[in-house]
Structures are given as C-alpha cells and as structure tokens.
Amino acid sequence: MSGWLQREYAPDAVARAVCVPRAGGSARDFDAWRAPLGSQVELCAVQLPGRLDRYTEPALSDLLEIAAAVAEAVWALTPAPFVLFGDCMGALVAFEAARALRRGGGPAPAALVVSSYPAPHQARTERRYADATPGEFRRRLQDVGGVPAAAIDDDELFELMLPTLRADFAAFEGYACGEEEPLDAGIHALLGRGDPYYAPSDLAGWQRHTSRDFKLTLFEGGHFFLREGDAAAMFVRDVAVASRAPERAGP
Questions:
Q1: C-alpha Rg value of the chain to the nearest Å
Q2: Domains of the chain, with CATH numbers?
Q3: Which strands make up the sheet holding 15-20, listed edge to edge?
Q4: pTM here?
C-alpha cells in the first residue's frame, strides 16, 4: 500500500502513532507533531488519495474502503506496538481500520485515540453536504473552518479542491456503523472545551466500543484545538510509549 503512510522513521522509537487526518486534511496536518512525539514514537501520518503527492489519484468516498486500505498499510509495517489516532472524520477511519485488522487477523492497536467526533453508532443529525451546490458547499466550509480562507475564496483553487472535499464529506455522511464486538484496546476520546459542534456527552458514547479502559479528556480550545498547541500530540505520545509494555491488564 505504497503512499498511504508518510512515515517519519525513528530508529530509537519504542512505538508508533498512526494518525488519520480530518475531512479535507492531509498527512501534512501532523507535521507539527514530530517534535512533541520525540524520538520514542515514530509518526506514520495517513495520506489519503486526492491530495498533495497523491493529487492525481481520485479521492475515495467510501469510508470502509479507506479504512481497509489504512489497515493494509499498517499491517505491512514491521511489527511494533502502535496507537491509532483519528481526528474528526479520521476518528471513524481509525476505528474501522482497527476493526478491519481484527477481522483479518492482523496486528491490534494498543489503543485508539479519537478527537472531535461522536461515537460511531450515534445517529448523525447534520445536514448532508456531499451533494450540495458549490455555493452551499463553500458556505459550509466557511462556517466550519479548517480549510484556509484563501483556498475557499479563490475560485480556481476551490474548483480544484471540490471533488476531493465532496468525497470526504460523502465518506463520513454515508457511513453506518455495523454491529461488532468491542475492540480489545483502550479508547481515549479528546475534545476541545469550546467545541461549538460537539459536547462531552457526544464523545462519551465511544466507551461502548472498547472492552478495555475508556478515557475522555478535555483540552483548551475549540473544534480545531489540535492546531492550537502540543497538548494532544503529547497525549498521544504518552499513550504510545505506555503501549510498549509486553503485558496488558485483564483476561
């Protein structure tokens, strides 16, 4: 699965952090994580088709297909303890990648860390935007943020980005969580205290999907708190480093 993981090789690493970006994001979203992860944690940032060095590839609009490809890329790595992290839409991708690895008999993550998105089984009440007109889609992106204003306001650039953005929205808007056993990995949910879209109760539902420990941690900031400091990266680092222990509590 060449191209799916932008791997920051760290020879002294004791664990990996496999990080999935939000809708409209790319592996570059995690560039600032290299320093806080330090030499002990190898950064493997997921690069989805349709952006940056994979710009010529069509973006995928099926979240389960994306998750299966991420799982295959993770499985191809040399064995090492790893944590799966997903931001917003990426939380669903990371979750389904963990399930895909389990179904295939692949390596299991030591933990799943999810940010700024409700539990996968919870009903979605947001309006669907994947098929909205370009004008409606542009206004939605302006309201939500996360995409540089210069890119949204530039007609030519926006037109180039639109197919990939539509595919990302279609992926999480069309997703339905199937019934499976809880993951045999702890789940840690992260949320900005000032998030205008989701409350702690929305993320508390992730507890249903683990047979291990669950933790909900609030950070200063809003929906895009990951960009506002190193706290989240350091949290993932600590979880990843702790995961290297050979023994795990429980039966």
A1: 17
A2: 5-125+177-242 (3.40.50.1820)
A3: 5-8, 41-46, 15-20, 82-87, 111-115, 186-192, 214-219
A4: 0.93
